[in-house]
Amino acid sequence: MVLERLKLRHFRNYASAELELFPGKNVLSGDNGQGKTNVLEAVYLCGTGSSYRTTRDADLITWGESGFYAACRFIRRREPLFVEVGCTREAGKTIKINGVPHEASVENICAANVVVFGPDDLRMIKGGPVERRRFLDTEIGAVSEGYRRDLSAYRRILAQRNAFLKDKRYDSMPAARRDPALDVWDEQLAAAGARVMVKRAEAIKKLSVLAKVAHRHISPDGTLEMVYRPSFYVGMGAVAKTRGDDGETLRKWEEAFRRELEKVRPEELMRGVTLVGPHRDEVSFIVDGVDMRVFGSQGQQRSVLLAVRLGELEFVKSEVGEDAILLLDDVSSELDPGKRARLWEYLNDRVQTIITTTDERLLGDTGGPVKRFRVRAGRVEEVR
Questions:
Q1: Enclosing H/E stretch for 241
Q2: Is the pLDDT of residue 248 over 60?
Q3: Which segments of 67-183 are extended strands (E)?
Q4: How far is Cα 76 from Cα 102, in angstroms, rounded to an integer?
Q5: What is the pLDDT of residues 154-205, one digit of tens each?
Q6: Which strands form 100-102's sheet, in the order they lie side by side?
Q7: Is the torsion defined by CA of 318, 320, 323, 326 positive or negative?
Q8: Which residues have CB under 8 Å from 214's CB, separation 6+?
Q9: pTM here?
Q10: Residues 144-148: contacts with CB within 8 Å, 24+ apart?
Q11: Which H or E run includes 341?
Q12: How confident is the model at residue 307 (pLDDT cuts 50, 70, 90)?
């Protein structure tokens, strides 16, 4: 996967811009607030269909303008892929892939695989469980259409079941008893939820191995492990084998889910909300037995997050058969010189990378050829 060209119009602080990218490392340098990160955001937007910085598409429109336009020409599996994303304040977002309109409401259009590392990543560790679930859903959904379908089905059933519980809500803890209508919702929720959880367990098991290798290279001190923590005990283990067992693993997860729903039913009826399921799952980042969210320093947390992002690169390649594009936002301030040097050594020009920095000298020796751009007040110029 390679990005050849990016075009912007009325996007963030860019009235108009066009960039031709290099297949290896591309460096965008400039003072803070000039628009470097906006370029990365536009690439991510064209790759996935959504921003990683805001949930409001209108936020991307230049102040005083009626809409924005962003377009990327990628090369995917040796074929050109032209993605256009537009948005107006009146009509909302539109997406075209090779000239064909695409559903703009889906969470990930999967046009191009893009991995981003930057200052906001710390939310994944420091923030609440929703941040870590969002990371999982984004990463797995980017390589699995089946996961996107299962997750969408689960969320729809969950919303309907919650509405049912809210309507039947009791003022005090009710006695446990059968409810045929709720039994039906439980069956549907457990079936859809089990598929989501099995795929999460499988993905985290693989990501953990890949991130561990990257972490060992970037930060030799300590061994990283990613741990999946479902919202209920599965009995067979949360990261059991999930392939080649003719559905046996899926059946066990589904049975465990149903048992847990039956157990918490009285409390759910009193509170009017579903208390267990993938929407309550958690992921932990452990280094030598220490939970990085609770006890990790900010430097350790950054190293872990970078290793996870590098693990994502390998995960994407193993799942779809080609490299993702790596976006590194302000990496010179996020990592110390030693870790930056080990990062360039690890990458070794294997993937196309777009890097932002306030001073290119802070990056050190990135190794290999580099294409340089200077960003000033929403204007990008190639440095020759």
A1: none
A2: yes
A3: 67-76, 79-88, 92-97, 100-102, 114-117
A4: 18
A5: 999 999 999 999 998 776 666 656 788 899 999 999 999 999 999 999 999 9
A6: 14-20, 2-11, 67-76, 79-88, 92-97, 100-102
A7: negative
A8: 306, 307, 308, 310, 311, 314, 346
A9: 0.91
A10: 144/199, 144/319, 145/110, 146/199, 147/196, 147/199, 148/106, 148/107, 148/108
A11: helix 337-347
A12: very high
- Structure token pair of residue 94: 């539109």
SS3 (DSSP) at 278: helix
| Lookup result for tokens 């779809």 | 320
Give the start-end residues of each E strand in 195-277.
224-229
* Backbone φ, ψ for residue 55 (5° rounding): -100, -5
User: Residue range 237-262: average pLDDT?
Assistant: 76
Cα dihedral 173, 177, 181, 187, rounded to 10, equals 100
* Residue whose entry in the numeric block shows the structure tokens 């598409």: 57
pLDDT reading at 266 higher than 80: yes
